[in-house]
Write a structure and sequence with these properties.
Length: about 260
């Protein structure tokens, strides 16, 4: 079954479900839960740092991240170009301090204290221009949060890049750091790693041959039907060091 056939489940009345097409992750799709929680873990880390700030969530997608940020920030604007995702977010996530605007990250401009661009810079044709655009929007003391997949762990072993057709460029840690440092004086770069049960699962696969074992026992579907929906943000950890093994690269940028 291709990802295009997966639809969000159990949406509120009047909110059209979105289809999983590979361009963005979605909540309410059990099979997608690993990728969704991987995104939520970073949004939660950002949310803890934007209390009382005016935040713009660029390329806000389905809207779950903007909603999460709005629980802490003074105000949040979710900016999304896709008409279906924009309409879904506008209808589903309603808070007094949250609104959604349909626009492109390259052109939307509004003074703010923080900008969030998660898992999107790899989609952009001119990331340098976008980072300069963001810097011009920031109030004094402002910060830009950017994340991107680490191509070293995203791509198959030995491949230069993954097969994701939506990605224009995928970054190694040193390449991502250089891109950020070309536009911001202060670059705090961290990696997202597996923690808790995902770390145990990774060891089981890499050292104990768990993939071969569950196939021989014919447990694969039953195991992952239980395991994937149970993944939570606490199964990921953000930290510095050994960025070549990081799943995602996460930067806090200050002029």
């Amino acid at each position: 079954m291709t990802r295009e056939l997966y639809l969000q489940r159990d949406q509120p009345p009047g909110v059209p479900p979105l289809a999983l097409d590979g361009e963005r992750t979605l909540p309410d799709v059990p099979e997608e839960n690993y990728w969704f929680q991987r995104h939520v873990a970073v949004y939660e880390w950002v949310a803890a740092q934007v209390g009382g700030l005016r935040v713009i969530d660029m390329a806000s997608g389905e809207g779950y991240g903007s909603d999460l940020l709005a629980r802490h920030a003074a105000s949040v604007v979710g900016v999304e170009a896709n008409p279906d995702a924009f309409e879904h977010a506008r209808l589903r996530y309603v808070r007094p301090n949250l609104r959604f605007e349909r626009s492109m990250v390259e052109v939307y401009a509004e003074p703010c204290d923080a900008i969030v661009l998660l898992q999107t810079i790899e989609h952009l044709h001119d990331p340098d221009a976008v980072l300069e655009h963001f810097k011009a929007m920031l109030a004094p003391g402002g910060v830009v949060f950017v994340s991107t997949p680490n191509v070293l762990t995203l791509a198959p072993p030995g491949a230069e890049r993954s097969g994701n057709p939506w990605h224009v460029r995928e970054y190694r840690p040193e390449e991502f750091r250089a891109l950020c440092a070309a536009h911001f004086a202060r670059v705090d770069l961290r990696g997202l790693f597996h923690a808790r049960r995902l770390a145990v699962h990774q060891v089981a696969i890499e050292r104990l041959g768990w993939d071969a074992i569950h196939r021989r026992l014919r447990l694969t579907k039953r195991f992952y039907d239980w395991f994937v929906p149970a993944i939570a943000p606490r199964d990921f950890a953000l930290r510095g060091g050994d960025l070549e093994r990081a799943l995602d690269l996460v930067a806090a940028l200050r002029p």
